[in-house]
Amino acid sequence: MNPYSPTPTSARISEIYVNASKKATIQWSKAGSIGSGATQATLVTSSRHVSDDVTSVVPPSLLVANTYLILSEVSYLYVPTVGYVLAKAGINMSDSAFTRPRQSTCVYYPTTGTTCPTS
After folding, report:
1. 85 in a domain, yes or no?
2. In-domain check, residue 18
3. pTM for the whole thing?
4. What is the pLDDT along the chain (119 residues), one digit of tens a residue?
């Protein structure tokens, strides 16, 4: 992030299961943020929770029955050095990306209790 401060950076990664009826739900989710003066991210509570319905978030072409997706999200509050054109309070820049596990059916995370849960 140099020369800018990494402080307003937050990220979240979640695993999504798409069931037979093409309903997408969160299997697990972890988030991180960089606090003031920190040089690395710290785990924080994710705003996505197990069993949250995220069908409306997933593009229809990715709603393939009985599959898993990984949703990666990041946001950064960009505060310009000179605020003549942009808002002096900053602009929230964010992006998200969907990927599929490549070498396994799902990405196992110990809190899920089983390998590749399907609920």
Report:
1. yes
2. yes
3. 0.83
4. 666 777 778 899 999 999 999 999 999 999 998 877 777 788 888 899 989 999 999 999 999 999 999 999 999 888 777 666 667 778 889 999 999 998 888 888 776 555 676 65
Residue 111 maps to a domain: no
What residue has token string 């609920």? 119
Whole-angstrom distance, CA of residue 110 vs CA of residue 113: 6
User: CB under 8 Å to 17, separation ≥6 — which residues?
Assistant: 24, 25, 27, 67, 68, 106, 117, 118, 119
* Residue 18 burial class via C-beta count within 10 angstroms: exposed 0-12, middle 13-18, buried 19 and up: buried
CB count within 10 Å of CB 12 equals: 19
